[in-house]
Design goal:
The structure is a single chain. By secondary structure, the protein is an alpha+beta fold. It has 2 domains: about 60 residues, Orthogonal Bundle (Arc Repressor Mutant, subunit A); about 180 residues, GAF domain (Beta-Lactamase, 2-Layer Sandwich), CATH 3.30.450.40. It has 10 helices and 9 strands. The strands form 2 sheets. The chain has a 6-stranded antiparallel sheet, with helices on both faces. A 3-stranded antiparallel sheet has the order 1-3-2. The protein is elongated and about 70 Å long. About 30% of the residues are buried.
Length: about 270
Amino acid sequence: MTSKKRARPASETNKIETGETQSQSVSYSAPALEKGLDILELLCRSNDGLTQKEISALLGRSTSELYRMVSCLERRHYISHQGDRYAITTKLFQMSRIHPPTDRLVTAALPLMQELAHSVGYACDLRVYNMGSQTVIASINTPSGIGFNVRTGAEIAVAPSASGRVLVAFQTAETTELRIKESLAGLPADEVRTFRKELHEVIVKGFASIKSREYEGVHAISFPILDIERHAIAALTVPMVPRVDSTPAASRIQVEEKLRESAAQLSHLIS
């Protein structure tokens, strides 16, 4: 007796190409995982987001078949929705920089940061954007051991900080909007408008230099570390607390000049 090979449903043969081509054979299947990856890959290629109906049509699957997967991806912050349209978040972008690219960044940064701290007389640190906040991935204390220092591993709010402006401003328009929504959620509308205005000023200047809105007497200067596409993957920051004794320390202009030089060198090394 001969057995007839089951024909593939039209919905499968017509669906959009995903990470696995039809010519590849799969030894072990994980249908739920494949559905999730199909959704992520599809949304990564969409500039304006997609509705659930559009996702279903492009993947050749029913809306009910994908509903739980879409809900799961949103709950885990891989995707988000505005109105009825779903779009990719920056979570995958952040995960791609956890290891080993972050290790490479820190390795390249530490010698430059040591030199920077020694030359200006202030502490410095390196921060990356992390799902609505910032994480300090490297820090060098003040040469004298006394001063304002930020420890490695600290989580810092985006809105009040110079580095937060840098990490949001130097991105694609889409990524900037996503980061504003993630990091400023819940803030009054007038504060969000002020933040947007300040982002434009940062782009024009090429860096951020502001008085701290959290600590009296602190002035923070932050420059972007840029990748090959000129997007900020990190922010190199010096929090200044001017000394009143005779201990040598650089002026604000001198710090800006040295910080600009160090950021440019690090950007060159990692691009």
